[in-house]
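Section 3.1 - Work completed
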Amino acid sequence: MSHDIGCSGSSFMVTDRTKVKRLSERGKYEKKVVYDILDECLTCVYSFCPVNKYGFRVDDQEVPTPMSIPQSCVRYGNYLLTHGKSNSTLMKHMAQGFPVSVAATLIDGVVFARSGFNHSMNYRSVVIYGTAEEVTNMEEKRKLLNHVIDHLTYPGRAKECRPIADAELVSTTLTRLEIKEASAKVRQGPPHDDKADLSHPAWAGVVPLAFKAGTPISDRADSDIGMTSLSVPKGLLKSDRFNPTSNYNSVNICCLKEWTPMIALSVAIASVSLLVFHIK
């Protein structure tokens, strides 16, 4: 769930940094494509070089150490919200307006080809470049943090919780990164085998992968509070929903057992494809 406010135009401007260069036909610049991927992702990765922090030397010069920090992925209109402890390296970096890049990825399937070279994955990914600003107005900060709660759980969850305390607001830094320089890269469909390999006797096709929720587990065995208002955000869990009438003290794990050996094997084989996964 995200608010589509202040989002003019249907596509992002293509820049040298966002232009998909390898397999350019997979590049997508429409805002709806980018937003839909971000809204379905639960996590994304922020990458940056901390200012005045040097980790190694190259040609007798000290250079910064690149850092990558996983964060929750929460969009609000044309902004990406990030929150964390006020003294964290990432939050201090972003609050001061230093540049970051953000990557968000969804894996929809493992693609089996008749050659190891042509193995791949079906994926949807987004890369964003930009600078953030700190949200300092306390009421706006409270509203946006409540949006974070609702987005990662379900609409209305923040109202069910104890209100955010002032001390919690002070100890938490909230930043928003305007999504101005962004692109998506998407692969869907069957393997692309070489013509000469089509007669090779190896199974080829796609093993679909999906992120699913199990049955909610209460934190207390004697809890009589059910999740009666639960409504999973659109796209968050593609093919499954929480069941408010289920037994909250157990977990339902779903898997395709007949595919387990093939999925395990694919981890090793598909690693080759990761080298060219989102090269721009």
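Second construct:
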Amino acid sequence: MGFSSSSGSSWPSKLKSVVIRGCRKLLAGCDKWGMGRFPSLSTLSLDYSDEVESPLKQRAFFPTPFTFLSIRDLPNLKSLELQGFTFLYGLELEDCPELQSLSEVSLPSDLFSLYIRSCPLLEQRCLQDTGEDWPKISNVPNIVIG
């Protein structure tokens, strides 16, 4: 089934999980998806796009009960804004070499699992006790870095 950035009305109403891999134009136009209309959507995985610097800027376009987010292989991703993702339970960040820091606001209080791999700038900032972002993540029960 194919979707374009303008086909928000074509999304299945009971959609629970979406994986978007290698779709540069689709990721770049995520503000037009209309995914906020799908309360069943709980997992979003964004993989590979060298054109995307911050895929979550348009928070209003994502569903409220979002519980798991996976972001992989976005070589130009510089920042990650998680404000408003209050139901986020799991966060996976992998192969984002330009990702410099986590959200300026605190992470969701219910975040249970954080996985950071091949994100060298972020990994340094998240080092236990010494990293600049450690205070932001220290309350997460399950943390895997590296």
